[in-house]
Amino acid sequence: MDKFVLNLIHRPEMVPEYAEKVTGHGKTEDIGRKALLTESLDIFKTQQEAAHKNGLKTTIQMTYASLFNDEAVALAKEHHEKYGDEIALSLLGLPCKEFREKYNTKDFCIWMFSMEDKKEIVNDVFEKFHERFDFYPESTGSYYMDAELTNYIKGKYPMVKCAVATCWEEGPKAYHTCNNSWYTLFDGGPWAPWIPSKQNTHAPAANEAEDSGIVAIPHLSRDLIACYDGNGSNFGTHPQNVLRGMIYDSKTWEYPYLYNLIDQYRSLEKYNNGYAYNMMFVGPGWMNKMGRWEAPYELLLKSYEDGCAYYGKLKKEGKLTDMTMSEFADYYREKKHYTEPECALWRDILYGSDKQVFWYCDPYMRACVNMDQGGAIVDLRPYAAKLKWEVGIGTKHVQDASYPFLIQEKYRAGYFTHYAGEGTVRSAKVCYNGEEVDLCLCRTKAHFSEEKDASGKVTARVLTLDPVDIEFEGLTVKLQTKEYFEEGTGRIRIERNILEMSDPSAKVEINEYMVACYGTTEYPEDMTGITLTCGNETINYEYKCREASVAGAKEVSALVPPIETKVSLSTEDGSAEGYIREGYAFSPMFTLGYKKTMADKEVFSTWLNLEKAN
Predict the structure, then answer these.
(1) Can you name the residues that pair with 476 across neighbouring β-strands?
(2) CA–CA distance, 171 with 93 (Å, rounded to integer)
(3) Is 535 left (phi over 0), alpha (psi -120 to 50) or beta?
(4) Which CA distances in Å does 588 have to 311, 367, 376, 594?
(5) pLDDT digits over 278-288, tens only?
């Protein structure tokens, strides 16, 4: 293994998001309350001690509030000199007496402010940092940093090279489990470090011209199944996420899931050229002396100390390298090239199922393949569009910073629907004598490999699925699927191979299809303006349930202007029939597909293609 890298990030958040209501219980709000500030600093000291006694260095992200506290500033300087901790700057932790008096607001999410206010706040915070430390930070971050904010920071403070820039799947799922009160909506981004494009933070840069100038890291490393299926805030490598998810033994106070989750992140080096990454990003609000998430302070403290001890053990065994954020940014730029994807073949380690998914992310797309649904694509974000999506007060998206999807099984039903219509999914159906079986019903497992050209350069990441047996009346078909994620192209090639038929003379029909739409939440968007094309046939979307087909069509496509995306299926097989289908009001989707008659031992390949629509 090359490296398993850890970023351990602490912030002396003098007025933690959660803490004022607890320390000041029954009293009028006072974010300058001495007890609150003292306890917050004590917790920060405890967290730092837990890291240092295990031989781990940290990145200390100073908050705006902490910059007014002499003891917090002195501690940061001391730990930088003694332990090699990086002194960085967080755009979290804005609320304090000084901030409230100047900006006259209780807003604290930097990306939700107007652009004018974002600039003023950045200038204030960075200059205050410089006043206290006599240098500017090389790292910063928030729960989310929109592209306009990042571009401004990089232009004004070019020494910044690394930032915490998004929370993986911190969208409607998390919002609903916070009683519809946590307005941080940014689904659709990477789960591992990336170089954001200047146009959109979530979409990785494809080349130097698109490079925003920073390396972005996620806010926490999440469970790539449990977080996607449920609330991500319960399933992360931050120990107190695990406590919030109640994933521990209440009698022994042990949490093997935490260590299994860290270990599964370690295993991702198998899919990413010998490199794996993990992070913990912690503020003091989690370790309140009055307890949190139904857990007493003693358990909160134990979980954090145990988490640091496990990382320290891995470091002592030579299995982990701890880096500060700026060190990691330099390492990442040496290690990765722009079009190199991030891959994760992930298995369930929480619920005891056999579920397995594959995540793929590069500058053109983010995709999720679900092996419990026969290798269907169940989440697809068209990064190829590099969609400009301004966020904050004064824009069309005050809170919703999510990158739009074309396919999303949680918000658009996927294969399994309640009553009528279709959900979004990319799959295939096998048909014989009037019977039809969707591969979404055929559970399987996947194996990862890489395809290389003559020079040894990796050209595609390949998922080879275990064959499935499809039983019809009078015929059994053994079919295997392979999926090729072609680097630097925005294309996925899907290959169906009929390995065996109980009647070698029989013929079946393969129906390759993609049901899609667009959006960022569960609620439907206006589909008018979408154009479906199949050969010389065109349908302008009007919810009329129309369809068209063309024999030998080389491409079937949809132009989706609201997200500046062209999505298409294509094939080089001239014997296939392409088709398009318009949805209706109760099922506001569109369908692209190919049908082909296949015999024993035949192979049918189609491509899913994503492009920016000008």
Answers:
(1) 471
(2) 21
(3) left
(4) 48, 21, 20, 20
(5) 999 888 888 88
CA–chain centroid gap for 564, Å, is 21
Phi, psi of 375 (to 5 degrees): 85, 20
Backbone Cα Rg of the chain = 25
Per-residue tokens: 538: 């065109």
Q: Quick one: 277 exposed, middle or buried, by C-beta within 10 A (0-12, 13-18, 19+)?
A: buried
**Residue 174 confidence (pLDDT):** 87
Q: How far is the C-alpha of 383 from the C-alpha of 363, rounded, in Å?
A: 6
Q: How far is CA 140 from CA 44, 77, 112, 546, in A?
A: 18, 17, 17, 51
**pLDDT, greater one: 232 or 279:** 279
How many Å apart are CA 501 and CA 14, to the nearest integer? 68
Q: Please give the single-letter amino acid code of residue 259.
A: Y
- Size (the chain), residues: 614
Q: Which amino acid is at 381?
A: R
pLDDT digit string (tens) for 35-65?
A: 666 788 999 999 999 999 999 999 999 999 9
Q: Return the residue matching tokens 């998922």.
A: 463
Which tokens in the block code for residue 202? 């979530």
Distance CA 172, CA 183 (A): 9
Residue 392 near residue 115 (C-beta atoms within 8 A): yes
pTM: 0.96
pLDDT at 32: 57
Provide the pLDDT confidence category of residue 584 given band limits of 50, 70 and 90. Answer: very high
- Say how far apart CA 562 and CA 526 lie, in whole Å: 9
Q: How far is the C-alpha of 316 from the C-alpha of 304, rounded, in Å? A: 18
Cα 208 to the chain's mean position, in Å? 23
Query: What is the tens place of the pLDDT at every residue in 417-464?
Result: 766 778 999 999 999 999 999 999 999 999 999 999 999 999 999 999
Q: Quickly tell me which residue has 């009929």 as its tokens.
A: 498
The one-letter amino acid code at 418 reads H
How far apart CA 513 and CA 439 sit, in angstroms, is 11
> Which of 493, 496, 463, 482 is CA-nearest to residue 595?
496
Take residue 479 and report the two structure tokens written for it. 């079919």
DSSP string, 480-522: EEEEEEETTTTEEEEEEEEEEESSTT-EEEEEEEEEE--BSSS
Q: Are 431 and 398 in contact (CB under 8 A)?
A: no
pLDDT value at 167 more than 50: yes
241-286 pLDDT, tens digit per residue, is 999 999 999 999 999 999 999 999 999 999 999 999 999 988 888 8
Dihedrals phi, psi of 449, to nearest 5 degrees: -150, 175
Q: Is the dihedral of CA 51, 55, 61, 62 positive or negative?
A: positive
74: amino acid identity, one letter: A
CA distance 354 to 347: 7
Q: Which two tokens stand for residue 107?
A: 């807003």
Q: What DSSP string describes 278-321?
A: EEEEE-GGGG-TT-BTTB-HHHHHHHHHHHHHHHHHHHHTT--E
What single string gives the DSSP state of each residue in 544-611? S--EEEEET-SEEEEEEGGGTEEEEEE-S-TT-EEEEEEEETTEEEEEEEEEEEEETT-EEEEEEEEE
For residue 364, the tally of other CB atoms under 10 A from its CB is 29
Neighbours of 333 (CB within 10 A): 13
Nearest Cα to 580, choosing from 609, 552, 558? 558
241 contacts 231 by C-beta, under 8 angstroms? no
On whether the CB atoms of residues 167 and 144 are closer than 8 A, the answer is yes
